[in-house]
Amino acid sequence: MFLTNSKGSLENRRNKIYKILINGFFIAFAVCCLIPMITVISISISPEDDIMKFGYQIFPKHIDFLSYKYIFAYPKQILNAYGVTFFVTIGGTLLALLINSMAAYALSRKQFEYRNPLAFIVFFTTMFSGGLIPWYILITNYLHLSNTIWVMIIPSLASPWNMFLLRTNFKAIPDSIIESAKIDGANEMYIYYKLILPLSKPALATIGLFFSLGFWNDWWLCLLFIDKSGLFNLQYILYRMMANITYLTSQMPLNLGLVVDTSQIPNESARMATVILAAGPMLFVFTFFQKYFVQGLTVGSIKG
Amino acid sequence: MYKVKRTLLLILCMAVMLTSLLTACGGSENATNSAAAISSSTSAETSTVAQETTLPEVKLTWYVLSNSQPDDALVFAEANKYIKDKINATVEFYPLNQGEYNDKIKVKLAGQEPIDLVFTSSWLNPYNDNIAKGALLPIDELLDQYGAELKASIPQKYWDMVKLKKIGDDKAKIYGVPNYQIEASVNGLAFRKDLAEKYNLVDAINNMKNYDDLTPILNTIKENEKSVFPLIDANLTPEGKYDLTTEAYKYASVANGIAGATIDIDTFKVAGLDDPTLNATELKLAQIRRDWYLKNYIDKNAITGNVDLEPYKKQGKVFAYLLGACKPGVEIEEKTKYGYDIIAKQTRAPMTSVGQVTATMNAIPNSSKNPERAMMLLNLVNTDKYLYNLLNFGIEKTHYTKIDENTIEILKDSKFNPSMAWALGNQFNAFVQKGQPADVWELTKKLNENAISSPIEGFSFNSEPVKTEIAQMTTTGLKYDKIILNGAADPVKTIEKRNKELSINDNWKKVAAEVQKQLDEWKAANVK
């Protein structure tokens, strides 16, 4: 009696210690993840002088929205850029998922006779590329895509890496499911749309996230192909703004005989403000996708 | 089954609609653009019928090295009205900043896109490479025919300096128009004026002849001003000169100061590690710096990494520092930036080099459909004060106010102030900004005239035959240079150690022999 009782309390105590340790570890870990984020926010609302004097602070000594004012001085441009980026990200991700999953599905089916040569052709492009300039000439002179919104979507639609990832995922779906659907009278489109896609939701979500991050963060395509300021995306606008600030606050204009009053130009704080503007929306998207990641881990276990 | 088909059909329909919608948008935009262009062209034509009847209307594209501004569209429209009147052309300006310029223009030139004007220079969108690739048009004839004014506005010696011979051509040609401005580099030192006056150092500063004369000045500051460092970076003469006067310096390095690549320009002989004058100077400078280091003239915390001088200057924590460009008006510019009056002292004769003259140019690409018009535009922008200032400072009263005929003040909330006058054209046409000396351009021109160019100008050392030696010596340099330049260790021993390392495998001697060989060949071909 005594023995069991003490053993029970010992176990309880042990559990408690474990719990404290584990919780403590994860709290510490979470804090480590949060601190950089908080610091970024703090710097973005600190006056430039404070950053010069005290360095980066976790909590700002004074609050000053100069950098946001500087960036949003002409809100039309930024809002327009947000619009372009949202369109490209959403439209691009959906189209990319559609195209890659269709290709992956075809290549995953054993009934498709030429799947291996075709897969090789796709694979081949990952090893060799035509080079920047031929690619540029193709897009501008033959496809005439420059200065259209599509140039930010189409060149990155087909992604061999993600396509093969999806194909491997589709291959893991037992053939018997497809066969039984066929016996029930389903055609290929129906199987793809009603069976394969829903069964691969976690994989699609993962790859969708890759794609959306790619589209969201891209400024290179915009730099190369877009001249019209109305089609600039968010990352590119922020990039230009930062380049502008860096130039004005550097030694260079002075050496070249120009007079610039730099006291009203935020530098470090503006840098951090652009980080927040650029990364903020993606944080929400990530939490939305997160549930699929968790699902992705458990899907296999439920089926046994 | 039916439901699936319907949904798929719906998706397809939506995709098609979306595509057509977007293409329609793009199309209509083009349509309105061209409509606007047509209407503006007709109005302009009627106004200039008498003047330019022979010139057909054209559209030019100019990728300007600039920083895009909120009021770009407004200013460019205004500029176009003016250009239209003058040369009956509409110019599409695309401002690109320094970070993106190379990436964007490289592919455009390679893709033979019809561009009419680009920025090119020794450091961005490289002039030499572009010529080698055949991307730029030789403009000698165009200049004579359509740019006579422009040609006359820049001294002939600078035109000669931008001339280059393309492989396969029989003579050198001009491929770009230099943006005429300060064409000489001048090194100097800056001293905080308030402190210099407080301790009666102004005369001492002005009469300074060499490095040793600096020591008592720095000492006064060290002893009296506890919160100010006399120096942050002890390397006040990048070329290793002991004299702080404006006389021409005898030595020139052709490979980033690598041992064995320093040339005595009087005799055209390499001065190596065994050159007594060079060695004595280095040791003398190193000992002075060691002395400063031991006396705590330098912020010892700052020399461990790469020092960013800006915070020190902004907070007024440094008394003396190196001025990269010690030119007319520099005092006011430094004051605008850091809030302190300074005394600027030149420490080297102004030097002109090809690198300096080609540092900022505009050129006509080979792919241009209207090179004649592009030249006319270049001519206009370089010789017409109104247009040049419009593109620099914007519209009067909207972006700046005039104080007198030539002086302006930029409005505080100006939505157009790219601050890129140096990349656009002849800077001597620019308005003087409030704060600059009224005669800043005359002074700069005088400085240009007084500038000397090195006798070995035009000689470029091909390091390929000795690249292993140079790589090894660069590593050695990285190890010791910072120590020697800041006096962080005993100079005699450190220099001895370094020289021993540089002499491994006769490295520096091999480099010296190669430099001498190439220099002799170059001299035989170029110096009469």
What does this protein structure show overall?
The complex is a heterodimer of chains A (304) and B (528). Chain A has 304 residues and is mainly α. Chain A has two domains: 2-44; 73-297, MetI-like fold (Orthogonal Bundle), CATH 1.10.3720. Chain A is built from 14 helices and no strands. Chain A has helices at residues 2-44, 48-54, 66-71, 75-108, 115-127, 132-142, 160-171, 175-183, 188-199, 201-217, 220-225, 234-249, 252-255, 268-303. In chain A, helix 4 packs antiparallel against helix 10 (201-217). The two termini of chain A are 41 Å apart. Chain B is α/β, with parallel strands linked by helices and 528 residues long. Chain B has three domains: 6-53; 58-180 and 357-453, D-Maltodextrin-Binding Protein, domain 2 (3-Layer(aba) Sandwich); 184-250 and 270-282 and 292-353, no CATH class. Chain B has helices at residues 2-48, 72-87, 98-110, 127-132, 140-146, 148-153, 156-162, 193-198, 202-207, 211-224, 276-294, 309-314, 330-338, 354-357, 371-383, 385-393, 440-450, 467-486, 491-502, 507-526; strands at residues 58-65, 89-96, 117-120, 163-164, 173-174, 177-178, 188-192, 251-253, 262-264, 269-270, 320-323, 342-346, 351-352, 361-363, 400-402, 407-410, 432-433, 452-453. In chain B, the strands form six sheets. A five-stranded mixed β-sheet of chain B has the order 2-1-3-14-6. The model of chain B is unreliable at 16-52 (pLDDT under 50). Classes of the chains: A mainly alpha (304), B alpha/beta (528). Chains A and B meet through helix 6, helix 9, helix 12 and helix 13 of A and helix 1, helix 3 and helix 13 of B.
